[in-house]
Amino acid sequence: xxxxxxxxxxxxxxxxxxxxxxxxxxxxxxxxxxxxxxxxxxxxxxxxxxxxxxxxxxxxxxxxxxxxxxxxxxxxxxxxxxxxxxxxxxxxxxxxxxxxxxxxxxxxxxxxxxxxxxxxxxxxxxxxxxxxxxxxxxxxxxxxxxxxxxxxxxxxxxxxxxxxxxxxxxxxxxxxxxxxxxxxxxxxxxxxxxxxxxxxxxxxxxxxxxxxxxxxxxxxxxxxxxxxxxxxxxxxxxxxxxxxxxxxxxxxxxxxxxxxxxxxxxxxxxxxxxxxxxxxxxxxxxxxxxxxxxxxxxxxxxxxxxxxxxxxxxxxxxxxxxxxxxxxxxxxxxxxxxxxxxxxxxxxxxxxxxxxxxxxxxxxxxxxxxxxxxxxxxxxxxxxxxxxxxxxxxxxxxxxxxxxxxxxxxxxxxxxxxxxxxxxxxxxxxxxxxxxxxxxxxxxxxxxxxxxxxxxxxxxxxxxxxxxxxxxxxxxxxxxxxxxxxxxxxxxxxxxxxxxxxxxxxxxxxxxxxxxxxxxxxxxxxxxxxxxxxxxxxxxxxxxxxxxxxxxxxxxxxxxxxxxxxxxxxxxxxxxxxxxxxxxxxxxxxxxxxxxxxxxxxxxxxxxxxxxxxxxxxxxxxxxxxxxxxxxxxxxxxxxxxxxxxxxxxxxxxxxxxxxxxxxxxxxxxxxxxxxxxxxxxxxxxxxxxxxxxxxxxxxxxxxxxxxxxxxxxxxxxxxxxxxxxxxxxxxxxxxxxxxxxxxx
Length: 745
Hints:
Elements: H1 4-14, E1 19-20, E2 26-27, H2 30-33, H3 40-44, E3 62-74, E4 80-85, E5 100-104, E6 110-112, H4 118-123, E7 126-128, E8 134-140, E9 142-144, E10 147-151, E11 155-162, H5 167-170, E12 174-175, H6 182-190, E13 196-199, E14 203-212, E15 215-221, E16 259-262, H7 264-270, E17 285-286, E18 290-297, E19 300-305, E20 311-312, E21 330-341, H8 381-398, E22 404-411, E23 416-418, E24 433-435, H9 452-464, E25 470-472, E26 483-489, E27 494-496, E28 529-531, H10 537-540, E29 561-569, E30 575-585, H11 594-614, E31 620-625, E32 641-643, E33 646-647, H12 654-658, E34 663-664, H13 665-672, E35 680-682, E36 685-687, E37 690-694, H14 696-699, E38 702-707, E39 738-743
Helix pairs in contact: 8-9
């Protein structure tokens, strides 16, 4: 229903008191004519096919725009905003320009009125933000990380034209339907920036909810998309190199048909910063349409829906090619990124655990220095223990209690030992371990040679009802901030082999063929053993702080590769064969740190080659988080410019494929069960970061290999929002563990 004020203005216009502004808008008074209103589309700019510059043509200018407040937003920090969109019959008519825009309003629920304006005369100094108000706003055209917007600090309400409108009845709201091609999809979303868009019913979730400081997000695709029509577990988005990708002939097209759904609108509707988007998992179906404004943040265009998603459970990701338990005369080895398994004890040997710590420095490798603030440690011991319990349940129930487990991202701390009073039934909680949290270095009395966080994980596994595990690891494998690789093994099934000073890897003079000087730690005679070396000078000369030439310090590894030599036992405890494990956690971000990660692959290949040169039929398994994709996948297409005359593919794991003497088990997985051949999800699609490479002697014995899909497809924890895990033990890490089962007879 039109307000009296609106009707009065229309009446005045009908009586002939009409003035036409410079942009063609009709005004009912001379006062209004002072506002030279421009179309929101002119602010957003018209995006032609192939455009790459999405900046506003009016950036930095003060303009007047007119539109209806379609939706309010609220982020977890309490910042507010709203979307403003022109009436469907009052736009610029350009399909390539957006008719909506975002107004950031900081912590305020009001916006100032402009001195001398009709709004100031009628409302006083402030206008209260109301969905359904049609306003004339004067503001400076700004941009926040690419999102074209106005800010309440420089925006004023000039006039309130009408109130009480139903926005979705007045503005254009279209169903989200981006094209397959990523570039075309980007242009499509940019042409709708700030506008209301609707996620249609029957849309399918392609990646479980993720949680950030800015809130939560869910990736999805339309139910009528080609990918959604694939059978069973194949009904999802894969990277282009994957055989189940639906867009043929492209490389890394980004699967443009995907879209992300955010919760800035949900939080505003609920009126509380504690709200977060529903805990969706991959394959869930959105059963009711949801509408919201398009907002750009962290290079993602999100539909910030006003109402929470209504979901119907789809296929269970954990049942997609589940792990096979080792049978008689078989053993299994798993690799598991346990995602920042820090305890809540302030490590006296570390300066970068807790708020208030000074930071961590390495005088010999300053590029790896770590400065505050730190956010690794759980907020409470209960939260940390819940993480332990969920991971313990996964190891027992889903990984089938492997004989040996390679871990990544455990805390590099050894200031504790097992409480003598602990038993699996003692219920000691935080007192499972007794610790020296005061003394540092050699003066510390608490250490026992086992990294504390995975040692405690071993105890919780036993408390859960699982087998007894022993934790081992060389703290020299840690990076400066304090995470490391480690090992858990069942003493009933396996043991650490004795090593000699002449051993080609574990001895005092490793025969690792790499062109630079080895670190001092390489001379340690021990098992397990961290191994590292300085980067080649030509790489160091190219190192920068970011991009493809970024380096995490001047050593090959910021987190040293860690080798271990185990033997398997028969039922009588006798040695029935050895296996060499090389546990890895490469530098992150596949499309950055390219030179550095390439050298990491070369060094691991050299470790493996040293073993196989000494023992041609050795069973070697290199695994872990390689943080880049297996062949033929790559962050860079063939011929794509990486830098200068350096073109793709980057082939960062070439050393593993060509010089290690090992074979990629991903190739086995993608042939045996392609719909399950992945270990991670990112921007709505699968990718493989966690990998295993096996020597020929081991490959011949492989019975099964794959990933346990128990994390990447499930919603991430939302402890900051006071929410319990939505799917029990699932979703406790961001990586899916890798497992291999092989004969040991």
